[in-house]
Each structure stands twice: as C-alpha cells, then as structure tokens.
Structure prediction request, 146 residues.
Amino acid sequence: MKNISAFFRIVALSAVVLILSSCSAGVSVSTPTTSPSEDWPMFRANAEHTGVTLSSINLPLTLKWIAKADDTLLSSPAISGNRLFAGSYAFDATTGKKLWNFQTAGPVTDSPAASGDRMFVGSYEMNIYGRDVASGKELWKYPTED
Prediction:
C-alpha cells in the first residue's frame, strides 16, 4: 500500500506541476469544446474527459510551489479560477497556500470536480460532498450506499 500511495503522490504532483507551469507561464489551458481558459475543473479536463488542451506549454517546466497536506492525496487535481482542488483540499493555485480542507470518514480517492462556486468530491466511505469553493463550507452530503 505504501508503494501505491507514493505512486499516486508522484502522479498527482506531476499533474499539478504541469498544470501550474502552464497557467503561471501565461499559457491558457482549454478544451476543444470551450474557449481558452486556465481551468481544468475535473479529471481529464472536461465532462467529455478528453484530456486534451489546444494550448502549448513552454519548456522547460519549473516547480512553482509545494504544499503539505495532513493526509495522503490520492486523487488527481482540478483547477477552477485560482483554486487547485486535490482530494478534500483547496489550495491557492498561484502560491500553494492551503485555503481549506475537510475531513471524511474514509480516504478521498475520487478526483474533485468544480463548477462555478461549487466543488464536488466523493469519498471512500460512500458519500459525495458539495462544497462552497471560497469557504469550503459543506453545502450538502449525499450517501451513495444502498
């Protein structure tokens, strides 16, 4: 389990570095179905999960920041506005400052998704959460068990 956890941390960090490097370098990230923006609000970029951007990235990539979380982050990140969401955490996408986080009864392995002023994420304890992106306040919690 420890090796798997380390693997996911490396994958998540790599994704964060790529996304942040492109955003901070002034390169816009977009999907084929939308106008250019810096958002990557869910796993593989959009509702179609194309994982495609029409933008290019300037090489070499450089590390902009490192953030510490109280838990192991197992999900891929999402960016909406100037916020980066990973697991149950929200960070300032420019500085890496932790803005808020919340605790669940199980690990958050699902990738978050953001839309407008809402962030959504599922947890291993079989709940889906709706949170306010600015404050992290719980808007709702939906149990998915039978």
